[in-house]
Amino acid sequence: MLPLRLENVSFAIGGRRIIDSVSVEIAGGPRTVILGPNGAGKSVLMRLCHGLFEPTSGAIEWRGAGVNGRPRQQAMVFQRPVMLRRSALGNVLYGMRLAGVARGECDLRARDMLEVVGLAHVTDRPARVLSGGEQQRLALARAWALNPEVLFLDEPTANLDPAATREIETIIGAIHAGGTKIIMTTHNLGQARRLADEILFIHEGRLVERAPVGEFFAGPASAEARSFIKGELPW
């Protein structure tokens, strides 16, 4: 289904442009991190890519759009995941059944996913009583169980402590190693260094810079990126 192409994509609410004429092509393979300060438009851009928002102008196209009527294999995990009023296992099973996974396959795969993300011990526990880190791991398991070709992650560790963040990053690495394209937003420079292969730097709704992660941090080409890195270093 990749590459994903955006052509002069803009998005406005109440006359205010949140995304401003973004053009970019995102291919398979490398982990793409959309980096930028809070309020830069990262989350809105990701929702546009995933299809949750329609652009005010411009076009968004997937290579595999509409092929044989087959839905695109993509999933998204939000900063604050929505937990259904079901057990941890029930949350994973529900997503798989909606996606049309064969009933006989669902239970085994769901249990395997919970074990892989370290949640086998809470299989029957209500999802909504789990800790924040556990809920985020469950959201990743729910998405990963669908075998997505592309996984969108919107600030997946923004509300977590360092230990929980490390667990989530390990899972993200495993999902990527399994062949899923990762497209992720963050404002955290350390996390971008650890998880990104390429950086899309967003500032005030504009795509200011795109570069391999090493090149970006060694010598950002834009004044906006240099300023952002300098301001975040004390963290």
Can you offer a commentary on this structure?
The structure is a single chain. The chain is an alpha/beta fold. The chain has eight helices and nine strands. The strands form two sheets. It has a six-stranded mixed β-sheet, with helices on both faces. Helix 2 crosses helix 3, helix 2 packs parallel to helix 4 and helix 4 packs parallel to helix 5. The termini are far apart. The model has no long low-confidence stretch (mean pLDDT 92).
Q: Determine Rg (CA atoms, Å).
A: 18 Å
Number of helices: 8
As a percent range, the share of strand residues is 25-35%
**Main β-sheet: number of strands, strand sense, barrel status?**
6 strands, mixed
Unreliable spans: none
What is the residue-mean pLDDT, rounded to a whole number? 92
Properties at a glance:
235 residues; alpha/beta; six-stranded mixed β-sheet; three-stranded antiparallel β-sheet; 8 helices; 9 strands; 25% strand; globular
